[in-house]
Amino acid sequence: MSVYPPEPWRVKMVEPLRTTTREDREAALLAAGWNPCLLRSEDVYVDLFTDSGTNAMSDRQWSALMRGDEAYAGARSFYVFEQAVRAFYGYEHVIPVHQGRGGENILSRCLIRPGTHMPGNMYFPSTRAHQELNGATFHDVIVDEAHDPSSEHPFKGNVDLAKLRAVIARFGAESIPYVSLAATVNMAGGQPISVENLTETCALAHAHGIPVFLDTARAVENAWLVKQREPGRARSTVAEILRALCAPTDGAVMSAKKDSLANIGGWLALRDPALADQARGLALLYEGLHTYGGMAGRDMEAIAVGIAESVEENHIRARVAQVDYLATRLCRAGVPIVRPAGGHCVCVDAAAALPHVPRPEFPGQTLACAVYLEAGVRGVERGAVSAGRDPETGENRLPRLELLRLAIPRRVYTRAHMDLVADGVIAVHRDRDRIRCGLRFTCEPGQLRFFQARFEPTSGTTIFG
């Protein structure tokens, strides 16, 4: 069994959880249209739908909330927030936004034009949606190992430089607004990119006059995995590695709801002062004044504290170890998962777990429903439902990875909760032959459909035989 260090915190306040029966969960899932996203939170016992905004804040963060300056313009809290981003991430120009996708929207509107092309180390649904809505076509330039759940490659978030060169050669540098990178790569299972590869990718892009922007939502987790896996980095602090990841890039989009241990907020950070001025103008339209960006002053204070706490070695060690513990339990029970374990989630390979469910019947969504019914645990599909439809053909995209993602909130659940999750997933896998069919849409939104779509079994009234 992997090492499970004692949690580096103690409980000062509790939120009661409601236990439910199988009959309760069946009724709730039916009302939700076989989409766990549409469940009410009180019907979920352990909620691993996302690690975004679901963190437990520390006593220091709660104390910081009371210091919030709620002035509309020039609030003191903004400058505390700005200084924290500058100190730990190294970017000069900091534009607050209500959450990460607010920054994605602004950056896309600033730089993307119809007919352009966006290389990236695997897509993320909201990122690609912003890029496509502004007229770009996404091109995946991640290493092939990222699409292989069984590969033990330590840096499955790395860019394949040959693929990036091919995109530049085919479309021309002038048709590429920027290279869009993530650290870690969510859709690959929280897989990291190495500092060496990120630096080489930036050098290649910059040689062609192409900027590089980094999604840093989980870059602290990426930094910890670099410390464990990349030669020559073991003696570096997580804070030093975080700065090294950001250093070669031209800016970053951040959802502070992840690594920064907050419940809301984010930022767009830039090096180019002219681009920063343009982005501030759009922030005024879509987010709020450039010194609050859709956040209250108290949120900016809490984020500033969370940024500093996020790089504390005891915190990030325990956070990633909890993920690895769950992954190890599932792996030893024969549940097919994405290996190696990432920084924020464990992903079950739903295509391998349910080979008898055809890909057009959404094995990932089907498995998510089965796990909820078994254990009251909510995960999220990361496969064909999340990938959406091809805008040209209208056909469902069928990515090579068809996953059930179990994203673990920070400082929320204990080892006992992880054991409950593991027992539930293992039970579903043991009885997987009882799942006799998949799901089909009854309601399909045009964008980010996994959030609001509704489904029904493709045969009868239940997925079980």
From TrEMBL:
Residues that bear N6-(pyridoxal phosphate)lysine: 258
Cofactor(s) this protein requires: pyridoxal 5'-phosphate
GO BP term (any one): aromatic amino acid metabolic process
Database matches in Gene3D superfamilies: Aspartate Aminotransferase, domain 1 (3.90.1150.10), Type I PLP-dependent aspartate aminotransferase-like (Major domain) (3.40.640.10)
Any one Gene Ontology molecular-function term assigned to this protein's record: carbon-carbon lyase activity
Keyword Lyase carried by entry: yes
InterPro entries (alphabetical): ArAA_b-elim_lyase/Thr_aldolase, Beta-eliminating_lyase, PyrdxlP-dep_Trfase, PyrdxlP-dep_Trfase_major, PyrdxlP-dep_Trfase_small
Keyword entries, A-Z: Antibiotic biosynthesis, Lyase, Pyridoxal phosphate
Residue intervals of the Aromatic amino acid beta-eliminating lyase/threonine aldolase domain: 47-422
Pfam family, one: Beta_elim_lyase
Family affiliation: Belongs to the beta-eliminating lyase family.
NCBIfam families, A to Z: PRK13238.1
Protein name: Tyrosine phenol-lyase
The organism of origin for this protein: Amycolatopsis balhimycina DSM 5908
Phylogenetic lineage: Bacteria, Bacillati, Actinomycetota, Actinomycetes, Pseudonocardiales
